[in-house]
Amino acid sequence: MSQLSWIFYHGSMNELHAHYRLLLGLDDQWQVQNVDLQMEANSVVIQLRHSGGKLCCPECQDECSRADTASTRQWRHLDTMQFETIIEAAIPRSKCDRCGVKTIAVPWAGKHSRFTLMFEAFAIKVLQAASSVSAATKLLKVSWKTAHELMQRGVERGLQRRDTDPIETLGIDEKSFGKGQDYVSLMVDLEGSRVLEVVKDRSEASCDKLFDSLTDEQKSGIRAVAVDFWQAFRNSIVKQVPQAKIVHDHFHISQYLGEAVDLVRRRENKLLRSEGINDLTGTRQLWLYNEETLDDATQKQIEDIRQVAIKTARAWGIKEMFRDFWTYRSGAWAKKFFDRWYAWAIRSKLDPIKKVARMLKKHLAGLLAYFEYSITNAKSEAFNGRVQAIKSAARGFRNFENYRTRILFYCGALKMEPDFSH
């Protein structure tokens, strides 16, 4: 006989009822009517009964009379010694002169929830700590759909509780969603290292929606926004927070220069292969390295290839030289460096490099703003791995709201646990 069975058969039923009444935090209006151990189902059903008397309207909190009783419902509670524990009760409905007939609030669960507050709090901790949602569902003994419902409720609570303290620096970035050219836009509090909001698409209107998540006071306090060159984002920033400086950083610029080098490599590789030379084939990753991080073997490999792939080597050298731009301590000296670098890039006769150089010159003010506000989208980029893991674990998302919920659950730094104070 298990320990739980012994308690049921040999312990005091009154003590058992009092035990569960205390664990559930029941007030004087609720009593434990019965505790039903169902051995075959490996479960415990705790049946509760309302003691009667005046009710409280869940909307206006006024005292009112009883209208009737809703049908019996069940809530999943924390397991008792590996036994799945269910709370069962018929909830009275109040008759309020102001709000009409309403089902009253219960102390052990939130509105419309199928779980007790304690189970929801435990589930949130498990979902955050588990290696994946699938692993968490096995530990919690719930379905994937149920796990998502728990995350959704947690996110809703967290967003309602989110503070409206001042935010000085933001990062705005895009992430792929689904297949093709589907994107979502993210707003990140750079100092707080948290995703503030996620919206569908990457248009000016979608960026406006990101700013709608902030109060007017918060928007007026924004000093700088780290963003790439996407014009739709820039238009929204100028409109929504005109006082803020637009800052471009090396994360996106390195990406543009890396793509330009690879385009030069592919064009030159096509030409060399027509002449029977395959030295550039399969070297895409090689030209993404930074010079100071190369080991001796890789350094020698690049030196050997540079004797043949002259254009690719020149493009790589231009990319590497631009990295010195970020080492300056003042915008004035950085501007002088940029002018020299730009002249070299334009004279390179490499169209992909020239295209990026012209783009950087067009947005030079945003590059130089970095020396006034040393913010980067590094924290936004740091979320890339987590967001990609979220997307992969779910095999992609057909529903944007599910994707948004998952990102905010894991990256929003929200206070999602239920409130036990009521």
UniProtKB/TrEMBL annotation:
Transposase IS204/IS1001/IS1096/IS1165 zinc-finger domain sequence ranges: 56-99
Question: What are the residue boundaries of the Transposase IS204/IS1001/IS1096/IS1165 DDE domain, all occurrences included?
Answer: 170-407
Q: Where is the Transposase IS204/IS1001/IS1096/IS1165 helix-turn-helix domain?
A: 105-154
Please name the InterPro entries in this protein's record.
Transpos_ISL3, Transposase_DDE, Transposase_HTH, Transposase_Znf
NCBIfam families in alphabetical order: transpos_ISL3
Q: What is this protein called?
A: Transposase
Record the organism.
Answer: Roseimaritima ulvae
